[in-house]
Write a structure and sequence with these properties.
This protein is α+β, with helices and mostly antiparallel strands. The chain folds into two domains: 127 residues, 2-Layer Sandwich (Killer Toxin P4, Chain A), CATH 3.30.430.20; 138 residues, 2-Layer Sandwich (Killer Toxin P4, Chain A). The chain has seven helices and ten strands. The strands form two sheets. A five-stranded antiparallel sheet has the order 1-4-5-3-2. The protein has a five-stranded antiparallel sheet with strand order 6-9-10-8-7, sandwiched between helices. A hairpin with a 2-residue loop joins β7 and β8.
Length: 278
Amino acid sequence: MGLSISLLFLMTLLFSDLNVIQSATTEYTTLIYKGCAKQQFSDPSGLYSQALSAMFGSLVTQSTKTRFYKTTTGTSQTTITGLFQCRGDLTNHDCYNCVSRLPVLSDKLCGKTIASRVQLSGCYLLYEVAGFSQISGMEMLFKTCGKNNIAGTGFEERRDTAFGVMQNGVVSGHGFYATTYESVYVLGQCEGDVGDSDCSGCVKNALEKAQVECGSAISGQIYLHKCFIAYSYYPNGVPRRSSSSSSSSSSGSGGSSSSDPSSSTGESFLSLFQLCLF
């Protein structure tokens, strides 16, 4: 399981079966993308399946208590490392509802592959067997840009200023930040075990990719291996609505902040963002 497997996994992430689903039962369980290693693990004794099941169970259980958790299960011959992360503005209840869907989705979408990543709009799950080659934390896994472009309105200047605010915010928020700047809503999050300095660098990289990849698109999402960012521009102001899933910052999730009174929670942003994006 060397570099070729890692490249195959990355190729799968980038070029095959990256599904963007427009409908979902709730706004934080929309499937964004999935990445599956090409290679299935050999499991004549069933030990890998047992280890994978135990890992899934542990991740789901922990999702009632925290928004990020990483664990390793199995024996020395069947070691599997897995993690989940929920968006920083989800409650523990919503985090659990999101994460509890991921084991079934992983099995349905990828089967018993040696590595799998399933990203929903509110959470993601990743696992890999021991020996699976690593990819850079800055590697872009998925991008999507709004179909509508904004020109001649100062949009890109507003967006770039909002990007700068967000890059600073993910540091002060210890890995999660969401804010509005002049009708541009931005949200960024890093994987829970990434330090503040590395998080800032990852988000900066993602923001630069958004500028290049999405140009003047009204909205966009960029997913790197260790962080993601999303933005959306609302010319008439960010719509307000109530949200049952917003929460104050807590250990391990970072905080969120707003820079003007018209901002809404990160969850309502992503719900509206999905409508705008597709």
